[in-house]
């Protein structure tokens, strides 16, 4: 059995191909969805999709798959799946990327977990040992922090980042970029501290997203036991759709 999985974002689409349970190819399509035409769709029996974009971009993806004659399934947030129970009163309002990441993390750990996704937004979700989602946080991610500083301030002008660090900056460039990281790392540390008051001290931290590895490294010794999973959202597709 050959399956292609898609994680559709606003500016890029992550994909991977699975054959007989083995990951045989993966990649990233930037920009227009036409780039999906180059994917290894030959012999594919199903396409699984996680999409946080909705609207015209999502329609472009599904229209392309229809044109190629491919069957696809779109994941949605559910009230309960593989032991994880959604905390939202309106379960569909929980972002599907957060839901899938929680499903994957809980499936891997079978215990309390904290799930961090460091992308355009930084999301942090808490799941207790019984699989109950105990809430979470949504913050601006690294790129959004820079965008706000650039567009909403008159005199804060900064260039590119020379190194990723938490040290106090000695130039505006360093102050902005190091400040961005210390804000995100500080938010994660504070969220974990709050989570411990809810789920106790026995839990596994999972981190994913484009800036996940950077946060993992900058968090220092506290992050030595964290589990970095590049494709955590995609990992949640199979359990979500097999139990749909």
Automatic annotation (TrEMBL):
State the free-text cofactor note: A monovalent cation. Ammonium or potassium.
- Tell me its cofactors: K(+); NH4(+)
Keywords on this record?
ATP-binding, Coenzyme A biosynthesis, Cytoplasm, Kinase, Metal-binding, Nucleotide-binding, Potassium, Transferase
EC number of this enzyme? 2.7.1.33
UniProt: K(+) binding residues: 117
Keyword Chloroplast (UniProt): no
* UniProt binding sites for ATP: 7-14, 120
Cellular component terms per the entry's GO annotation: cytoplasm
Q: Which InterPro entries match?
A: ATPase_NBD, Type_III_PanK
Give the UniProt subcellular location, in the record's own words: Cytoplasm
Instruction: List the CDD domains hit by this protein, alphabetically.
Output: ASKHA_NBD_PanK-III
Give GO MF terms, alphabetically. Answer: ATP binding; metal ion binding; pantothenate kinase activity
Classification via SUPFAM superfamilies: Actin-like ATPase domain
Query: Which residues participate directly in catalysis?
Result: 97
Q: PANTHER family, per this entry? A: TYPE III PANTOTHENATE KINASE
Give the protein's biological function: Catalyzes the phosphorylation of pantothenate (Pan), the first step in CoA biosynthesis.
Subunit note: Homodimer.
Q: This protein is called what?
A: Type III pantothenate kinase
- Lineage, highest ranks first: Bacteria, Pseudomonadati, Pseudomonadota, Gammaproteobacteria, Cellvibrionales
């Amino acid at each position: 059995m050959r399956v292609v999985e898609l994680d559709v974002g606003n500016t890029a689409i992550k994909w991977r191909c699975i054959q007989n349970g083995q990951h045989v190819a993966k990649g990233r399509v930037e920009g227009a969805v036409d780039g999906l035409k180059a994917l290894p769709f030959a012999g594919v029996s199903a396409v699984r999709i996680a999409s946080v974009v909705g609207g015209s971009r999502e329609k472009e993806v599904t229209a392309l798959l229809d044109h190629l004659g491919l069957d696809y399934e779109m994941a949605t947030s559910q009230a309960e799946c593989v032991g994880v129970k959604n905390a939202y009163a309106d379960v569909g309002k929980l972002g599907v990327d957060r839901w899938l990441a929680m499903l994957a993390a809980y499936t891997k750990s079978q215990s309390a977990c904290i799930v961090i996704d460091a992308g355009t937004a930084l999301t942090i979700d808490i799941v207790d040992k019984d699989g109950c989602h105990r809430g979470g946080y949504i913050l601006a991610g690294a790129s959004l922090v820079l965008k706000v500083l650039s567009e909403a301030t008159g005199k804060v002008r900064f260039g590119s980042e020379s190194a990723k660090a938490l040290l106090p900056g000695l130039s505006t460039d360093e102050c902005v970029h190091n400040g961005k990281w210390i804000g995100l790392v500080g938010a994660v540390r504070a969220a974990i501290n709050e989570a411990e008051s809810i789920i106790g001290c026995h839990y596994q931290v999972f981190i994913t997203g484009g800036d996940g590895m950077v946060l993992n490294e900058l968090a220092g010794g506290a992050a030595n036991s964290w589990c970095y999973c590049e494709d955590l959202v995609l990992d949640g597709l199979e359990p979500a759709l097999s139990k749909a």
